[in-house]
Amino acid sequence: MPTIANKEIGPIGYGLMGLTWRPQVTPDSQAFPVLRTALAQGSNFWNAGEFYGNAPVHVQNLELINRYFTAHPADAEKVVLSVKGGIDLATLHPKGDAESVRKSIDNVLKILDGKKFLDIFECARVDPAVPVEETIAVLAEYVKAGKIGGIGLSEVSANTIRRAHAVHPIAAVEVEVSLWARDIFTSKFGGVAETCAELGIPVVAYSPLGRGFLTGKLRREEIPEGDFRRGMERFQEGAFERNYRVVEGLQKVADRKGCSMAQLAIGWVVKMAERQVIVPIPGATTEERVRENTEVVGLTEEDMREIEEIVGKVEIVGGRYNKYAEGHLMA
């Protein structure tokens, strides 16, 4: 079993973003059974965000967590909770200065209200105006005081990981990893995966399903107004259709394996985790999808070679985000 922040977790975690960061927040009557199902399926590493909600407050994700553990207090000790913060809630711009970091952590702790210990506080992005050493030094104070269990980073370069880790051990590094986002395994970004493996830092793989694209069930015209994917380059008209060729190729492998496209995509990340600790955190808003996502499909080396050949033939069109957000990736 992999460990994060010195606690055992299942091979597949759960991302809570989709429950609240959408035009219509998922009601508790639906969200609570989904969370309980995730835990029952062994997905006890939960990834949340201070800003995973709708304007102007943005904190609906944390409020949901508070209500859940108020209703199910016995589950608190079973879950390893990581919360992203360090973001200006008005502008969603990274804020890594001491005052802003303390404000963010204190706000997270206030909303959780002791219902759940904060196992990891994670800087959502690196503030380009503040040396990462200064940000980590503030977080280290909270670890020493016992207010948080560990420190996480998200979308950081290998150099930033090393600089941060030299100040205080990093509990986890979160980055987008999927069949159409394999940057951390390439030299393009300075070997993020290799650096994490060398330093013994688990990788948390968000969006292993490409924000629904790799399920093979998403259609561009079905993305609702207000959905943040509408602003992402890979989902724009023309790019979406060209990128869909990778799904068409991979569907043949899924059919042969007798699994869904989602299971194949997550299975690929799980197979990559045989080389180092990588924990995919697919999100889902229904119990059925949680069960599907947590049914591990074993892939052979032959399967992996076939997948690599298919993916290698398709040039993915568009960045992972938009022009503004791309500037904060792998910083």
From TrEMBL:
InterPro entries documented for this protein: Aldo-Keto_reductase (IPR050791), NAD(P)_OxRdtase_dom_sf (IPR036812), NADP_OxRdtase_dom (IPR023210)
One cellular component (GO) term of this entry: cytoplasm
Pfam families: Aldo_ket_red (PF00248)
Transmembrane segments: none
Official protein name in the record: Similar to Pyridoxal reductase acc. no. O14295
Keywords of this entry: Oxidoreductase
Domain of life assignment: Eukaryota
Domain NADP-dependent oxidoreductase: 11-310
Molecular-function annotations in GO: oxidoreductase activity
